Amino acid sequence: MSDSGRWNPYVAGGLSGLVMVGSVALSNAYFGASTTFVRMAGMIEKAFAPEHVAGLAYFTKEAPIVDWQWMFVVGILLGAFVAAMLSGTYRVQAVPDMWRERFGMSAGLRGVAAFVGGFLALFGARLAGGCPSGHGLSGVAQLAGSGLVSLVCFFVGGLIVARLLYGGRR
Description:
Layout lengths: L8 H19 L6 H15 L1 H5 L2 H5 L6 H20 L9 H7 L3 H22 L3 H10 L3 H22 L4
């Protein structure tokens, strides 16, 4: 961490690269997370209707189980929490400052926007056959041209959406 308590992006990027190398070495699989959310939905549904889940072709291919990808997603959540705690930047906030300045104090509006954005991102990830970490990070690590194109498109799309939502302010 730097003197400001924030993580150095080069160190964080290097550590992410080491995690990816470890992922390939230990599980022979690259980063990816979107399948985890579908599997989690299958695990929840299995608790209420196990015969229905057993009859779905998707869940015979992608079993609704806790696997390395599921643990990877949990690790992202825990790692973000630990990093925020160590940097001293952790705080509970229903409406982030940038959102409040642009759209007001409505936690309901923020929640609806987050839900819709998350739904669209997950829908797009499933439609594309993988999430940004799967296509971008893992694709680039494999020197796949499609991975590089995906990563560039994700960043450009993010910049455009941020500009539309928040304008040119810093």
